[in-house]
Protein: Putative nitrite reductase, copper-type, cupredoxin
Organism: Rosa chinensis
Amino acid sequence: MERVRRGFGSGSAMAAVVLLALVFIMVPEASATRFIVGGNKGWTTNVNYTIWAQGMHFYNGDWLFFVYDRNQQNILEVNKTDYEACNSDHPLHNWTTGAGRDVVPLNVTRRYYFLSGKGFCYSGMKLAIQVETPPPPPKAAPVVSEGSAPLAPVFRSQFVLPAIFAIGAVWDAFLRFC
Ligand SMILES: *[C@@H]1O[C@H](CO)[C@@H](O)[C@H](O)[C@H]1NC(C)=O
Ligand SMILES: *[C@@H]1O[C@H](CO)[C@@H](O)[C@H](O)[C@H]1NC(C)=O
Ligand SMILES: *[C@@H]1O[C@H](CO)[C@@H](O)[C@H](O)[C@H]1NC(C)=O
Ligand SMILES: *[C@@H]1O[C@H](CO)[C@@H](O)[C@H](O)[C@H]1NC(C)=O
């Protein structure tokens, strides 16, 4: 490893550090999803959100993205009773920021209930979802635990090292051009 680094010079060593940082940032995020509520219709009237959410899986760590007319709608999280009654008098959480684009992190494994206040709930602007525990990561991901030591060198040599070589070569070429 030391010999490899000296061969490439400090530029590629820096590139390798950047690449490793990217690998660690990107791996956990690859499994999180940001759902645009209602798809291209957004958060509005005349969408049945029960049907929209049918068959979809929401996992802990995902986000809901509400896109709506900020002059008319809002996003209130309520409990089951108030969801069923379209009661917005005591929301558990007011997710409305005023921009017409609000992100709700689904960071607890439980049922979530949302509705639009000001009467729009009665015309169907309500959403109930179950947030589930995320499925186990794919087998290719590096797993560090007792007895799995061979996995780490395999991961490094098959993926990270070739990537560092590739980036290092590009970086060296780039430096020669400057
Ligand atoms: C929801 O909140 C209302 C008002 O605070 C309360 O009366 C009701 O029992 C709650 N329902 C549930 C299921 O917690
Ligand atoms: C929710 O928060 C927004 C932004 O702070 C505010 O304008 C609005 O009145 C609140 N709505 C409710 C029902 O609390
Ligand atoms: C979930 O996210 C909300 C809003 O960002 C935050 O207030 C809350 O502490 C988080 N809960 C957990 C268990 O991380
Ligand atoms: C949405 O569709 C479901 C399933 O077909 C139905 O039970 C529900 O009444 C509909 N909701 C509205 C507000 O139309």
Summary: Residues 105, 107-108 surround 2-acetamido-2-deoxy-beta-D-glucopyranose (ligand 3) (CB under 6 Å). The CA atoms of residues 142 and 155 lie 7 Å apart. The first strand starts at residue 34 and ends at 36. The helical segments are 2-29, 49-53, 80-85, 151-177.
